[in-house]
Amino acid sequence: MLGSLQRIGKSLMLPIAVLPAAGLLLRLGDLWHITFMASAGKSILDNLAMIFAIGVAIGFAKGGDGVAGLAGAIGYYILVNGTQAIDKSINMGIIGGILSGIVAGLLYNRFHAIKLPDYLGFFGGKRFVPIVTAAAMILLAWVFGYVWPPVQHVINDIGHWIVNSGAVGAGVFGFLNRLLIPFGLHHILNNFIWFLFGDYHGATGDLNRFFAGDPSAGIFMAGFFPIMMFGLPAACLAMIMASKKEKRKVMAGMLGGLAFTSFLTGITEPIEFSFLFLSPLLFVVHALLTASSLALAAFLDIHQGFTFSAGAIDFFLNVNIAQKPWLLLLIGLVYGVIYYVVFYYLITRRNIKTPGREDEEEGPKDVVKQTGDQKYETAALQYIEGLGGVENILILDHCVTRLRMKVKDMSLVQEDVLKKAGSKGVIKLNNQELQVVVGTNVEAVAQAMQRHLT
């Protein structure tokens, strides 16, 4: 079950990746009064369910084949129009897109190489995938046409409770959002909160409603800005200052880069995985501080949103449509101090082996500095070695910051070698599936690895 949920979480990242483009077009179009640009950005947000159907299908399909995306789109149209022919009040929204994408991706994996009799040979292979997807979705449209209305009613009730629960709901969401990061399942939770719950003139979810002008939206995003722009960068500073003096300069370069990435873009996983497995206590403290930040922002009635993550780019891009956004910077400074004091105290008091505090025999070896493609080639070979060699890697995929793999024999995986290659953490889901946290350069590393696997 965890492996299946992981695949869903990973697949959601492809359609989510288009949201920054939507945000830029929408906000710059509004700011510069360029109507067609704003309309272009809005069109992406208005058609997110279809985009999810296509993106999730490609994410689920082996090799990311575009045929699965076509099948996902066909399946989505059949599902939407079929269910609404039975009950016009049905609106499956993003869930309909995700369901269509999953079905199309799974059917692609099962039937993309099917052989049909000669007189039907034209419809064999990949061409059969949209056909079988259409047949499956007709059946599902009939089922959901009668099953979905009460489910939709329950979802709406849950959504109204969460949206109207204010600081408590925001705090609980913030806490769970961080706790699910080690399993990569936070994307699933996020999709319910940001794209499904609540309704404002047809726009659903905190993110969509925020950009549609809903004055009540943005409370499930605002509290992340103080954490990602100030809190976690301050945690990096604490880890730098707590490191051994002879390693402090090296750690400043490594952790300083991660801190700047977090501040600017809101990508935080490389930082979180630098202490997650070393000290679950630090991670729980981080989750509680995140929860308190979201609860505080909601309590102060601050509304701010993002299309990608809570970094400086999204903050300043959307500041003109936010409510009390400048308070987030003041709160962020306070949280920066809290993070620094708490992390430095716990690291030094409990002697936590954060980067730069490792014993000499555990520390990373000196590596010859390389640039460009050669750097990724070298890293790829090191990762392959740490994963037990080419023969041990059955499936290789990646998301924003992680390699996601299936291996033949988990006992051959050498975490120390992966760490020396640059890994921030290793997550073993079961006896074959694992994730390796690489960072924002994961795609380049994955591509270099793939060249050695084919």
TrEMBL record:
Main location class: membrane
InterPro entries cross-referenced by the UniProt entry: Glu_permease_IIB, PTrfase_EIIB_Cys, PTS_EIIC, PTS_EIIC_1, PTS_Glucose_EIICBA, PTS_IIB_1, PTS_IIBC_nag
UniProt topology in membrane: Multi-pass membrane protein
Entry-linked PROSITE patterns: PTS_EIIB_TYPE_1, PTS_EIIB_TYPE_1_CYS, PTS_EIIC_TYPE_1
Gene Ontology, cellular component aspect: organelle inner membrane; plasma membrane
Compartment list: Cell membrane
Active site per database record: 399
Residue span(s) of domain PTS EIIC type-1: 1-359
Pfam families assigned to the protein according to its UniProt record, in alphabetical order: PTS_EIIB, PTS_EIIC
GO biological process annotation, one example: phosphoenolpyruvate-dependent sugar phosphotransferase system
Claim: Membrane is one of the keywords in the record: yes
Entry keywords, A to Z: Cell membrane, Kinase, Membrane, Phosphotransferase system, Sugar transport, Transferase, Transmembrane, Transmembrane helix, Transport
Transmembrane intervals: 12-29, 49-78, 90-108, 128-149, 161-181, 217-238, 273-298, 327-347
Keyword Metal-binding: no
Stretches assigned to the PTS EIIB type-1 domain: 377-454
Gene Ontology molecular-function annotations: kinase activity; N-acetylglucosamine transmembrane transporter activity; protein-N(PI)-phosphohistidine-sugar phosphotransferase activity; protein-phosphocysteine-sugar phosphotransferase activity
SUPFAM superfamilies the record matches: Glucose permease domain IIB
UniProt cross-references to NCBIfam families, sorted A to Z: EIIB_glc, PTS-II-BC-nag
Protein name per UniProt: PTS system N-acetylglucosamine-specific transporter subunit IIABC
